[in-house]
Every structure is written in C-alpha cells, then in structure tokens.
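User: Let's play a game. I give you a shape written as tokens, and you guess the letters that built it. Ready? Here's round one.
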C-alpha cells in the first residue's frame, strides 16, 4: 500500500517532527558513518589520539583504539527502523588512576548520545607496560540518511475486504491500517502524538477514501537512548471492478 500521501500530510502538518519517512523493508543497508560519529564523540578525551583497528608506530598515550565488530538492523514489523553497530574500544594509559579519570571523561562525552556502554573490563598489558580499559559500545541510529530527530516512520500494516453487496459488479469496502512509528531522543512523545492526531484524524487521503480514524497506540522498547511509540490509524475506501 502506498503511504506517500500520509507522509506528505504529516510532513506539512507536524512541525515537531524533524522528518517523516516511508519505512523500507527489513534488511536495507544504510549509508551512516557510525565510525566517524564515534570518533567525533571521543577523540577529544585523548587529545585526538584515537585510532581504528591498531596503534601507529611509537604511539603517545593515553590513546584509544576502536573496532567495528558487527552491524545489525533493528527491524520492526518487517520494516527497518533503527540500526545498531557494535564497537570494541581499548582505552590505554601508563597510569591507572589517570586512566580511570579518562574513563569518567569518556562516559561524560557519551552522555546524551545514542551510544551505550554495554560491557567493560580492566587489565594490564605486560608487553606494553600499559593499563587498559576495554569497552563494548553500541551505536544506535535511525534507518535514514539524515539522523535528525524526532522522526516518524510510516508503513502499511494490514488490508482486508468483505463480500460485495452488489450483483452486477464488484464493489468492496476495503479496510486498511497504517502505522506511524515515532522515534525521539527527547521526552516529547505526547506532543508529537497530538500533532499526528490533528493531522490525520478525520482526514481523507483522496475523495475515494473515508475519513481516517484512530486505532491504537503502544510503546516500543528503544535502544541507544531512543524512545519509540507506534500509533495505528485506520482508513477505508471502495475497490471497484466492472
């Protein structure tokens, strides 16, 4: 089912939404530079000494080495909504107390971002004579080229029809449900729900459609500091065939 008219309507009538997106089927790869995003967040903690995969020759410490180890889509009801990249980073330094201070600075640098620390381990490298804090990070972003939030993903849910009430030709009333999935990093879901309701409730996509009705809503478990809520709107129209 085509959702382009709904996307256009929400984009025009909901100023609180930074973008409205027609959701893509699950498994779509995204051109999002998460490694560059992680570097931007953390390089200042170690004065720019942050390197992919391995240290350079004769490095200066403290330093960070980071590695992307997996990348997986967050598919909901068959559509890509979020994407999560898993990183392993190693924070190295010659002084353990100073390294703990740097770790606290790293946590502060990640505060309010869509990056979560999911695991941590401390050790000492005898060969390098360096202390290390090894971290596992998840970097979560939305399934869109632009990462501006809040966003709403629009996709069809169901379509059904009953028996025709006419004898000489087929004319059925078709029922269709559409999902509007809100993704936000702020506590503004109620305000966004109100904007979407004002835009869609009672609205007709075309003259062939009846007025749109509200169906239901439910919270969806978010990751990476993102909050998600799905609204369902019901529509109906006549399908005819001579």
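Assistant: Ready! My guess for every position:
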């Amino acid at each position: 089912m085509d959702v382009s008219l709904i996307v256009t309507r929400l984009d025009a009538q909901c100023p609180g939404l930074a973008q409205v997106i027609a959701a893509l089927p699950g498994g779509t790869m995204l051109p999002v530079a998460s490694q560059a995003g992680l570097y931007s967040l953390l390089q200042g903690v170690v004065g720019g000494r942050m390197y992919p995969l391995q240290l350079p020759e004769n490095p200066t410490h403290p330093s960070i080495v980071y590695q992307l180890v997996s990348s997986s889509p967050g598919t909901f009801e068959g559509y890509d909504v979020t994407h999560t990249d898993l990183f392993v980073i190693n924070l190295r330094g010659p002084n353990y107390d100073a390294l703990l201070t740097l770790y606290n600075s790293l946590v502060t640098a990640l505060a309010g971002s869509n990056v979560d620390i999911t695991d941590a381990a401390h050790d000492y490298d005898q060969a390098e004579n360096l202390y290390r804090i090894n971290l596992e990070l998840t970097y979560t972003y939305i399934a869109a080229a632009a990462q501006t939030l809040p966003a709403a993903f629009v996709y069809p849910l169901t379509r059904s029809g009953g028996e025709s009430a006419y004898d000489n030709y087929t004319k059925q009333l078709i029922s269709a449900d559409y999902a509007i999935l809100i993704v936000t990093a702020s506590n503004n879901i109620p305000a966004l729900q109100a904007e979407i309701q004002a835009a869609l409730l009672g609205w007709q996509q075309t003259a062939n459609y009846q007025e749109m009705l509200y169906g239901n809503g439910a919270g969806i478990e978010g990751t990476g500091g993102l909050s998600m809520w799905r609204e369902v709107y019901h529509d109906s129209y006549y399908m005819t065939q001579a």
